[in-house]
Write a structure and sequence with these properties.
The protein has seven helices and no strands. It is mostly helical and 151 residues long.
Length: 151
């Protein structure tokens, strides 16, 4: 891909959208961990939150490599579409582990959808595609693990 201001801007917007989704996930898992009784599930949720934080740093690094600052937030269209984690917090207050797991599944499914959209938009450079693809695989694995907990 040829570097132009426009392509750089599109890539940054896409990456910022994913960062916004990851922030939601990090917050969602942290909240989920606070509200489940099961210590093993609590530990898993905290691990997923930590993983989201690492993903955020990876994407911020990619934005910085483009010569852009990562101070701005908002996340563009991808971030604006993703509010699944925020909207499902109410299920946490009941402390119902099954409801919390379902909420996490919903959040992860929404994140996967946004990651796929980011890859399909084709605004990212090769190295960014590889970072985003790696993160997508990890989120899909997390979703599978969470679905197994629901059984």
């Amino acid at each position: 891909m040829i570097h132009t201001d426009e392509t750089t801007q599109e890539a940054v917007k896409t990456l910022e959208g994913l960062i916004s989704i990851l922030e939601d996930g990090k917050l969602g898992y942290t909240n989920a961990a606070e509200h489940v009784e099961n210590l093993a599930i609590k530990a898993d949720f905290l691990e997923y939150a930590r993983e989201r934080a690492l993903f955020i740093v990876e994407l911020q690094d990619e934005i910085n490599k483009l010569g852009k600052s990562t101070d701005t937030s908002g996340g563009g269209p991808l971030g604006a579409l993703h509010r699944a984690w925020i909207d499902i917090k109410s299920s946490f207050t009941s402390g119902d582990t099954e409801a919390i797991i379902k909420a996490c599944v919903t959040g992860e499914e929404a994140a996967i959808e946004k990651y796929k959209m980011a890859l399909e938009e084709n605004h990212l450079e090769h190295n960014q595609v590889s970072v985003v693809s790696k993160q997508l695989n990890s989120i899909q694995n997390t979703l599978s693990q969470i679905k197994m907990k629901a059984n």
